[in-house]
Design brief:
Strand order of the largest sheet: 2-1-3-7-6-5-4
Radius of gyration: 42 Å
Shape: rod-shaped
Structural class: alpha+beta
Order of helices and strands: HEEHEHHEEEEHHHHHHHH
Helix content: 55-70%
Largest sheet: 7 strands, mixed
Number of strands: 7
């Protein structure tokens, strides 16, 4: 961060200033631009070219330019006007950058990951914000729906004293808005984890997928919050070197405290989800084991019933066999006219049935 000095001390004379890109019509990517002096808005340019011109005419002013999904031509125009480093411009052209803070001469380049909680979908939506902070300008390049920088602009315009501190104060307000936006996300995730715990012990089969999806979101949340702790500490380390206003120092320390608290909560969420996933896997395994045991017991009982049925079928088959042979009524059949044939057949059936019963009983089939 840098101390606030007269514009002429920061910028090259107008004759040495590189020529800006040719005037261009207003594009949808240019969300809003404003020129400020002593904490008050003095004009609202409609194009980048008009913003550049008015900033040259007011060397003691500050330009605040907000873009969403800008074109390469617009970023190159900004780079030519404000001497932005080509590496920072290249990063700003594409999203999916990690949160970081880089200093290129008198210009800071900050990448932030904003987040918002979507109640209807019960998920976390991440946006990306690139911020260029110079001695007399601040440029925001937004990728995604979050954060709502119009609210930040309204807040700063209602506090001219803070806005008069320059681009560093605007950077603080943006950091504060991004970090404050994490609070509803933390609350929403905490509620999701409470619901997941209930579903896990309630045996909901769909809870595993929900745990996995929320765990992935927490990984992204960690990537958004954890680097901010080091970034803010780096800013605080440069307070003395760059003559940062004391009031602004207090504000930034407060943001750093909130970031640290949020980062710790997110780390706790991820650990909690890991533990819940382990518990859920244990419960699922126990349920599967119980089902397998129940199937085994059912199979055993069925097998016992089959044994009993088979035993009685064998016992009943023996007299049927004997009775069938003796009931064929052939004229030339041994013992056909024997007086003891009937008692013999009955005794034979009784002996066979009794013998089979004793055998099956010993094998515990009956």
């Amino acid at each position: 961060m840098s101390d606030r000095r007269p514009r002429s001390a920061w910028r090259r004379p107008q004759t040495e200033r590189p020529a800006a890109a040719s005037p261009e019509p207003a594009r949808p990517s240019m969300v809003q631009a404003g020129l400020y002096r002593d904490g008050h808005r003095v004009s609202s340019p409609l194009t980048l070219a008009e913003t550049f011109r008015q900033l040259r005419e007011h060397p003691d002013g500050m330009a605040w330019i907000g873009l969403k999904g800008p074109t390469e031509e617009e970023l190159h125009s900004l780079a030519a006007e404000f001497d932005l480093h080509e590496l920072a411009v290249e990063d700003a052209m594409e999203a999916h950058q990690r949160p970081k803070l880089e200093r290129y001469g008198d210009t800071l380049f900050v990448v932030l990951r904003a987040a918002r909680y979507l109640d209807a979908q019960e998920e976390v939506d991440f946006g990306e914000l690139h911020v260029f902070v110079g001695p007399d300008f601040l440029i925001t390049v937004r990728h995604g729906a979050a954060p709502d920088l119009s609210a930040v602009r309204r807040r700063m315009e209602k506090d001219p004293g803070l806005l008069a501190l320059g681009p560093e104060a605007v950077l603080y307000a943006i950091l504060d808005a991004v970090v404050d936006g994490y609070a509803p996300v933390v609350a929403g995730v905490q509620n999701d984890i409470d619901e997941i715990e209930t579903e896990v012990f309630g045996g909901d089969p769909a809870v595993s997928r929900r745990i996995y999806e929320l765990s992935r979101e927490m990984v992204e949340f960690q990537r958004a919050t954890r680097p901010l702790v080091g970034m803010l500490h780096g800013l605080m380390a440069g307070f003395a070197k760059y003559g940062t206003d004391e009031e602004l120092q207090r504000y930034l320390r407060d943001v750093a405290d909130h970031v640290t608290h949020t980062s710790e909560r997110v780390d706790g969420f991820r650990q909690a989800l890991t533990d819940i996933l382990t518990v859920n896997a244990t419960l699922v395994t126990q349920q599967q084991n119980a089902e397998m045991r129940a199937l085994a017991e059912a199979g055993f009982e069925q097998n016992e019933e089959i044994k009993k049925i088979s035993s009685w079928a064998a016992i009943l088959f023996a007299p049927t066999l004997v009775g069938t042979i003796y009931g064929m009524n052939f004229d030339h059949m041994p013992e056909l006219h024997w007086a003891g044939g009937y008692p013999f057949a009955v005794v034979l059936m009784a002996v066979v049935c009794t013998s089979l019963y004793v055998v099956f009983k010993k094998k515990d089939w009956l």
